[in-house]
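Per reviewer request, we include the raw input and output of the structure prediction for the construct analysed in the revised manuscript.
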Amino acid sequence: MSDLLAARAQMATSLAFHILFAVAGIAMPVLMVVAEWRWRRSGDPLDLDLAKRWSKGTAILFAVGAVSGTVLSFELGLLWPSFMEYAGPIIGMPFSLEGFAFFTEAIFLGIYLYGWDRISPRAHLASGVLVALSGIASGIFVVIANAWMNAPVGFRIVDGRPADIDPLGAMMTPAAFTQTTHMTLAAFSATAIAVAGIHAWFVRRDPDAPFHRRALSIALLVAIPSSLAQPVVGHWSAQHVARHQPAKLAAMEAQFTTERGAPLRVGGWPDPATATVAGAIEIPGGLSFLAFDDPTAEVAGLDRVPRADWPNVRIVHVAFQLMVGIGTWLAVVSVWAAWVMWRRRPWETQRRLLLALAGSGPLGLVALEAGWVVTEVGRQPWIIQGLVRTADAVTPVPGLVVPFVTFTLLYVALGVAVVWLLYRQIVRTGPMGEFMATREYAAPALANTDARPA
């Protein structure tokens, strides 16, 4: 394994691991706030139990996300020193703002966890809202930095170096809106679908468990709108890629030749050597219409790009197909779940839907990872689109395969520990949860909307 490949593999592993905790830090606070808000209104202890359990899960995921995010910060400087030297003065502002958002989230998460009986009900709920807002802001600022790498603006090139730097202008990169919106919705959809899938599985096993039925309903309140909005925003994002990164779009769609009325390919296995796609279903004019709202529009193919500047077409195309396929499936399941909720059908009677939700639980996270593969591998061989090549930004330090293997084993061990902790703190019922999961439990509707836990 070359040092360049080892550095890229280490960065990819770190990002793939960290992104799971980052999206949970965006979406889980929303779930716990909704649960607490419902408890404040009804006094139902089911909602209180959910809010407390989900807050514990948020704390665990936040802690691991903070550690893995710190590792990424070091890796940017240690593995890609030329990139940081070139881009640091330009994208330093979104990273700094992300730091402020991170600390805000940490402060108010502490208040939320330990303030149940120490501050007023309104202040406690407000602290949860601030945790959610700062988590969303933190994700947005990081994605803005990545969007700049895909569409760099806010500076001039003088003698091969950036000059006249405008940090605010850099944050206004044309890719910022579509990428941040797409990623935020993906965080909500993937996390909420994962939570819904877990509780759907338990409802299917024990239809009379009110705790899991309530958790499923709240998770779907977040999963349904985000999953339905995601295909629309994903379409806007793809149209931006078509205009600003045509080589990435060509790799995504395995479009080897430039043509008008380019077909939309569903599935297939690209062969760069012969510039063909085996086994794909082609929809005539579909790609031209989706990319430019015109079924006869010209779509640039990889034939307009020097072969040395081609992304890995097979990886990008398969990852893109996986992301779109899963996103479409989650939208279908969300429509199904929305229909059941609108008709007020009991969850325990919807055996097929529960099975579909349980099976869909991990798929949102798979689509999330696939989307980042498309974003990052599709930009190659550039670490900054059109300006700095990845091979020119890697550190000259040899032996990078050693830290790659070491960190990979560390992430595996840490992942196992996190799954075990989440199981113990959230899924596995404690004394209160065991009581609530029994058939005899009936949640009382308390009149006091500001009721506090005993």
